[in-house]
């Protein structure tokens, strides 16, 4: 396995229109999350979300199919951040260690703002237990994150890596984070320390990737 991954491809800069679209979607997602936390999905309508976000109802439906779908951008934000951290991994780092480091950093809660974000995720995951549509959004977000992770993992693993191993590593990492967040949401543990998302995710990753470590670390010595 090559220990010198090629540079990550640059992400094309978003146009002003694309940035405005993304900002509007995130505003709507935050409004939906707030209302779901306050009133639950059953007590919230698309009209309520549009009103809270300060947009017309037609704008809401331009971006989202239903009220549950509206929280998708918020749930996906964490995955976007951790993939970027992984892509920036120092060359020569063995893949299992790179995955752990990116997970720990992305799931840490260094300040009050980050801690509030985790509490928001906890509220959504708790609401999803009794809301199949909201749960489907969560699973879709994770599936999309896994698919976007595969080329990042493959690049870090090197040109001689088995594509199946790279795909399994991406699936394991995605599952580790998903299961950790779901398990944490069922508790009252804080966002940092024992029982935190970061601690649980690393435990899950080590369990899932235990048998893959020798293969994925080949050629790193």
TrEMBL record:
InterPro entries: DNA-bd_HTH_TetR-type_CS, Homeodomain-like_sf, HTH-type_TetR-like_transc_reg, HTH_TetR, MftR_C. PROSITE patterns: HTH_TETR_1, HTH_TETR_2. Residues 45-64 bind DNA. Keywords: DNA-binding, Transcription, Transcription regulation. The keyword DNA-binding applies. Residues 22-82 form the HTH tetR-type domain. Pfam families: TetR_C_14, TetR_N. PANTHER family: HTH-TYPE TRANSCRIPTIONAL REGULATOR RUTR (PTHR30055), MYCOFACTOCIN BIOSYNTHESIS TRANSCRIPTIONAL REGULATOR MFTR-RELATED (PTHR30055:SF238). This is TetR/AcrR family transcriptional regulator. It comes from Streptomyces lutosisoli.
């Amino acid at each position: 396995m090559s220990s010198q991954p090629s540079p990550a491809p640059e992400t094309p800069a978003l146009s002003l229109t694309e940035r405005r679209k993304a900002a509007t979607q995130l505003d709507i997602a935050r409004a939906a999350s707030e209302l779901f936390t306050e009133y639950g999905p059953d007590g919230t309508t698309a009209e309520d979300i549009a009103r809270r976000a300060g947009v017309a109802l037609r704008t809401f439906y331009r971006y989202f199919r239903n009220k549950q779908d509206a929280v998708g951008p918020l749930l996906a934000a964490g995955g976007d951040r951790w993939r970027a951290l992984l892509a920036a991994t120092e060359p020569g780092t063995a893949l299992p260690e790179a995955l752990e480091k990116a997970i720990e950093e992305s799931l840490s809660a260094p300040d009050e703002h980050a801690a509030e974000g985790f509490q928001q995720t906890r509220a959504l995951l708790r609401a999803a237990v009794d809301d199949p549509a909201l749960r489907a959004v969560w699973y879709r977000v994770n599936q999309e994150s896994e698919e976007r992770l595969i080329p990042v993992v493959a690049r870090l693993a090197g040109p001689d890596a088995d594509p199946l191993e790279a795909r399994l590593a991406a699936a394991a990492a995605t599952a580790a984070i998903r299961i950790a967040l779901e398990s944490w949401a069922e508790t009252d543990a804080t966002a940092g320390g024992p029982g935190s998302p970061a601690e649980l995710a690393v435990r899950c990753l080590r369990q899932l990737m235990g048998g893959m470590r020798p293969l994925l670390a080949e050629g790193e010595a």
